[in-house]
Amino acid sequence: MKKSIAKLRKFFRLEAKRGYDNKAVMGGLANILSSWEGEAREEGLPERLIQAVGSRLRDYHQLSQESRKTALNGIWQRVQKTTGAGRKSESLLSPQPEVEEVQEKDPPNQGASKVADRVPSYGKPDSQSSQKAELSIDLQASVTEIKGIGPKRSQALERLGVHSISDLIHLFPRRYDDYSKLKTIDKLQYGEDVTVIGSVKDVSTRTVRGGKMKIVEAVISDKSGSLRVTWFNQPWIAKQLSRTRQVVLSGEIEQYLGRLTMNSPDWEPLNADLLHTNRIVPVYPLTKDISQKWLRKKIYKSVQTLSPLIGDPLPKGLRKEAAVVDTTTAIKNIHFPISEQALQAAKERLAFDEIFMLQMGVLRQKKAWESREGRIFTVSDEWIRKQLAELPYQLTGAQEKALEHIREDLASGVPMNRLLQGDVGSGKTVLAALAMLIITFQGAQAALMAPTSILAEQHLQSLKRILLSEGSPLDEEEVRLLIGSTPENEKNSIREGLESGRIKVVIGTHALLEEPVNFMDLQLAVIDEQHRFGVEQRGTLRNKGENPHLMVMTATPIPRSLALTIYGDLDISVIDEMPPGRQPVETHVLYPQERERAYTLIRSQLEEGNQAFIIYPLVEESDKSNQKAAVEEHARLSEDVFPNSQVGLLHGQLPPHQKEEVMERFRKQEIQILVSTSVVEVGVDIPNATIMVIEGAHRFGLAQLHQLRGRVGRGEEKAFCLLIPGSEKGIENERLKAMAKTNDGFKLAERDLEQRGPGQFLGTRQSGYSELNMAKITDLALIEKARRFAEKVFQEDPHLSQEKHRRLKKAMAKFWAEETMADIS
Asked: How would you classify the pairing of strands 175-178 and 280-283?
């Protein structure tokens, strides 16, 4: 046995003994490749075998435990077949891989034959040849296994994310050209995209521009008339056309000197399989050294033959009930649709798969959390009434309903996992405070984590007013703030207080996650603006207690489609009612030449003793952008526009202590105008601020603009928000007009989701989710349909242990990254 083969077997066996944890080699199995590939080449192992081993091991870390077992077994079988190493029946692992994942088997003593040599031709399905192909092709094998794809093309395809045969099959078109409309020449009209079938009557070549360009001209005729067709700098076409009697042309009808023509159309001989003409033609993403026609042909050959090997993850009964086509049909028609209806059915199936997998994952997370035991915290209605009586205001109906949800969660015996979403100023903090009182009333501890030190300090002041009200069991020393700028001696005191249980409530930033912050009995974790924190950070805070209750809060309205998908593992309470007396913020769009009107309104507000925000999209001016920026504009506003007012500056690049100093001066009204970036987007509470001017407003999403607008109008005075885009004619200005029409954050969030996608809603929560390629996160009907079927499958077989769900379980493992489970582990 060759040394490289023996080494491979040794590592594989060690990995099997360890239970496929990818630790047989320090850093993972892929780390052996740097030395092993060189040894294998020196010993003369076939290049295709070396590439196949490399391809599998480089992806090994991404596989589930079961898939790793299958992968190593398949690699070893191929090594045996190719080199004759070991006993013929020797198997490192069991069970044997499934048919759809069995590795490619080379003909004895001939090396690996190319895929295209072993497959039946399209349109002539042959059961024997199909079975033979199914038994001998590994979809995870390198794309070089396909005939006509060598190292150069393979490198080019890698730039498109294509490494394996499976990647090629799943490289979906970016758009389609519909050439299925066949017309006779006498019916053609200028500007149409059509397909024409005709006979080649004349072909000629001429040179122009001093020999720098060659033009091929042909006359194509049918019974109704003739059409002149031209190709530029493609002289080889003349020879190809001269050997062809009838052709199919597809392209746009143009006009030259009053006659209809076609310039550089796609064309094919009439007797060929029509891939580029007379059909709905796929258009793929391209890169250097890859042409559209070449890629189309390779994908066509692979898809028509190998798509049945993919295996359908959905059981037949579910497919029938959900009214979706099977995977093979979907893959074929997403690439080469036989009709517009077939294309739409393919898109729906592939989109359904993505949303269905997403739903299955979030349901799995939800059930995993609900399977845990949480400590029960109950209080009497009388106790609640007493606490509410201490508040300076009455709760709204929406707040009362959310409080009831929180009490039910705390009394359920299952850890709370609730998202509290409410528009800016709707009163989420008071509900967090009441939950903390319930927890601390029975001796346990609570923590609130905010994304910025400014917001953490603000929460401290707000919570103290409730937690330390008359009759509260807590005193000031039991409610503390822990942020990055907290002095080290004070940090040590707080850590000791948390570990001993002396401190009952702590409000902080990421500093709460650091070691050695330990709690004696953490039973409630509140995370504000939760989309600013990742899965691992939430998990770290949870792990500082024993199955603590979790409440996450956001002022970003979550559209229903996202509530059912990305946030589908959380119970959701919506506070959609504003406190009485709160006036809507009057919003207007001003164009750059109207900026002085904004300054005039600011002056009038300052004269009445109020304060103002002026927001800029950038910290400093940049050569790459002509947008106004906070630092430069602060100097201009201070000296030229408001010389008699105190103008402060706040942005994310300032040291924490400077940020806190500026905000404190603004709160104390020592600063009348605060020039800032969007760092004030979340949570800043200045009741005296009545006007906000947002420069470069077109650069912000509607949801973000709504958050910024929420910084004013928090008192009893009338408030204003003025949006100034970069120019008067920008298309983006239509979005800004929507801001002027409504103060409803949910309506704006829905519109923002449609126009800008889900990124601004997800934050770091998108970590761990597979990219959605076909599904639109705005397709509520599809989402609700997928949710319904996911719940049905989950209720029937939550662990996907039934035989009919075997493929679904594998597809789930591939779709979901492992870190998405970190916050329930």
From this structure: antiparallel
Query: In Å, what is the CA distance from 16 to each residue of 8, 70, 93?
Result: 12, 11, 7
More confident position, 96 or 722 = 722
The backbone torsions φ and ψ at residue 118, rounded to the nearest 5 degrees and listed phi first, read: -115, 10
Q: Which distant-in-sequence residues (6+ apart) come within 8 Å of 493 by Cβ?
A: none
* Residue 416 confidence (pLDDT): 94
Distance CA 526, CA 551 (A): 5
Contact 318, 147 (CB under 8 A): no
3-state DSSP assignment of residue 534? coil
Q: Are 278 and 179 in contact (CB under 8 A)?
A: yes
Q: What is the pLDDT of residues 634-672, one digit of tens each?
A: 999 999 999 999 999 998 888 878 888 898 899 999 999
Give the list of residues 6+ apart from residue 821 with CB closer than 8 angstroms, or none.
365, 368
Alpha-carbon Rg for the chain in angstroms: 33
Between 65-83 and 47-58, two packed helices, what is the crossing angle to 10 degrees?
170
- Cβ atoms of residues 448 and 459 within 8 Å: yes
SS3 content of the chain, % helix, strand, coil (to 5): 45, 15, 40
Model confidence, pTM: 0.62
Q: In what order do the strands lie in the sheet with 673-676?
A: 586-589, 720-724, 689-695, 611-615, 673-676, 647-650
Report strand pairing: 673-676 vs 611-615: parallel
Environment class of 565 (CB within 10 Å of its CB; exposed 0-12, middle 13-18, buried 19+): buried
Q: What angle do CA 265, 270, 276 make, to 5 degrees?
A: 40
Buried/exposed 100-139: b ≥16 CB within 10 Å, e otherwise: bbbbbbbeeeeebbebeebbbeeeeeeeeeeeebeebbbb
Cβ distance 189 to 203 under 8 Å?
A: no
Name residue 556's amino acid. T
| Residue 599 parent element (H or E) | helix 595-607
Task: Please count the residues of the chain.
Answer: 825
What kind and span of H or E run contains 745? helix 745-756
Q: For residues 218 and 241, is the Cβ–Cβ distance under 8 A?
A: yes
- Please give the single-letter amino acid code of residue 551: M
Round to whole Å and give the CA distance between 135 and 759. 42
Q: What is the dihedral of CA 58, 64, 70, 76, to 10 degrees?
A: 30
Q: Return the structure tokens found at 225.
A: 């008339």
Q: CA-CA distance, 623 to 88, in Å (whole number)?
A: 67
In the chain, what is the straight-line distance between the N-terminal and C-terminal CA atoms, in Å?
44
Distance (Å, whole) CA 735 – CA 776: 20
Minimal CA–CA distance to 133: which of 300, 302, 298, 296? Answer: 302
**Phi, psi of 553, rounded to the nearest 5 degrees:** -120, 145
Q: Which residue has the tokens 């003409």?
A: 277
**What's CA 558's distance to the chain center, in Å?**
15
Q: Does 214 or 556 have the greater pLDDT score? A: 214
pLDDT one-digit tens code per residue, 288-312: 888 888 999 999 999 988 888 888 9
Rounded to the nearest 10 degrees, the angle between the axes of helix 806-815 and helix 340-370 is 80
Bigger pLDDT: 131 vs 139: 139
501's torsion region: left (phi>0), alpha (psi -120 to 50) or beta?
A: left
651-654 contacts at long range (C-beta below 8 A, 24 or more positions apart): 651/619, 651/676, 651/677, 651/679, 652/619, 652/677, 652/679, 653/619
Distance of CA 798 to the CA centre of its chain: 25
User: How far apart are alpha carbons 75 and 53 in whole angstroms?
Assistant: 6
Cβ–Cβ under 8 Å, residues 493 and 473:
no
Q: Which residues pair with 141 in a beta bridge?
A: none
Which residues on neighbouring strands pair with residue 405, listed in sequence order? none
Which pLDDT belongs to residue 102?
A: 29
Q: Count other C-beta atoms under 10 Å from residue 413's C-beta.
A: 10
Specify the pairing of strand 549-554 against strand 586-589.
Answer: unpaired
